[in-house]
Amino acid sequence: MTTIQATDRLSGSVVLAIPTFRLLPGEELGPGLKRLGVETIDAAIQGFYDGEEVFGDAVHTARKSMKRIRALLRLVRHEIGDKVYRFENAWMRDTARLVSDVRASAVMVKGAEEIRSLYGPLLAEGTFDELIDRLGARRDRIEERAMEDPAVVPRVVSNLERARGRYQTWPTDPDAKTVYGMGLRHRYEAVGPGMKATHARGRQEMVAAYEAASSASFHRWRKSVKYLQHQFEILTPLWPEVMIGMTITMSRIADLLGQDHDLAELLQLLADRPDICPNPVERSMMSALASQRRSDLQTASRIMGRRIYTESPASLDVRLGAYWESMELARTTRFASLSA
């Protein structure tokens, strides 16, 4: 869990947990990003050694970890250069795709269960039970094939281990750029352009999603939302109270859009494979309810998205740059004791 939101029942106040995927207070940018890259890959690898009974969870953790790495790469794209960025981004993208079917099969079960739970009071007892059972059996078959295929898990783990080795040797000396062609300087200019580009792309994709609504357009927006969320997490030390608040907003938007995408995938599966829901009445009912739920999710995403994307990328860049300067001033200033 990277960040959580809870409400104190007595005071009504919101309690925020500090994200784990973040730079530490006072940590230099280069060593900090290098640490995050290595630790995140370690977490992705570890799950595959925890046993077959948690294979689905391992896949979920690995894919989340690879999204975090891709967000990190986007954050420092202008610092490490396009050549390094494109190679490492494609490496993580292609590795994640090796287990995409496993994850997709699991979220379809969850999506159908959520529809049944949400509309349960309106449904006859047993509605969608057969559909969920068939989706569960399909998930289990896909997971079993992936676990037995020597071209899947061993390759995923190998790819992650090889990437870890490269991240472990990333040069963090501020002067490394003159020697290696890349470096990770401790300056806002090392992350500002990447953050600005991620925000700008997400802003454009939000507009495009609602102008020409499609499951693909909303999914593209969701990916940008996740990247920006993780970038906000990384830069928590800029101003924790503010950055965590923005992170929670982005996480909520991503969750809503993720549910929308999962339902879109479920509806497409039912259109391609009606045998998974052989009862035509239930199939029609699932289509109607899932479509209504998608509409609600998209509306909620739009409301929350405006909170982040109303601000222009240039304005966000200036604001976070000022936070960086304030953070650095606090980090490098020695205050005299004010105690008596």
Please supply descriptive tags for the structure shown above.
13 helices, 340 residues, 2 strands, disordered N terminus, two-stranded antiparallel ribbon
Write a brief structural summary:
The protein is an all-alpha fold. Helices cover 71% and strands 2% of the residues.
How would you sum up this structure, described in words?
This protein is an all-alpha fold. The protein has a domain at 187-327. 71% of the residues lie in helices and 2% in strands. It has helices at 29-46, 55-75, 77-80, 82-97, 100-118, 129-148, 153-168, 177-180, 192-211, 215-234, 240-272, 280-309, 313-332, and strands at 5-7, 14-16. The chain has a two-stranded antiparallel ribbon with strand order 1-2. β1 (5-7) and β2 form a beta hairpin. α2 runs antiparallel to α4 (82-97), α2 (55-75) crosses α5 (100-118) and α4 (82-97) packs antiparallel against α7. It is globular, with a radius of gyration of 22 Å. It starts with a strand and ends in an 8-residue tail after the last helix.
Low-confidence stretches: 1-11
Count every beta strand, where a strand is a DSSP E run of 2 or more residues.
2
Strand order of the largest sheet: 1-2
Shape: globular
For the termini, the CA-CA separation is 42 Å
Number of helices: 13
Strand content: under 5%
User: What's the Cα radius of gyration?
Assistant: 22 Å
Average pLDDT over all residues: 91
User: Portion of residues in helices?
Assistant: over 70%
Helix/strand class: mainly alpha
Largest beta-sheet characterization: 2 strands, antiparallel
SSE ordering: EEHHHHHHHHHHHHH
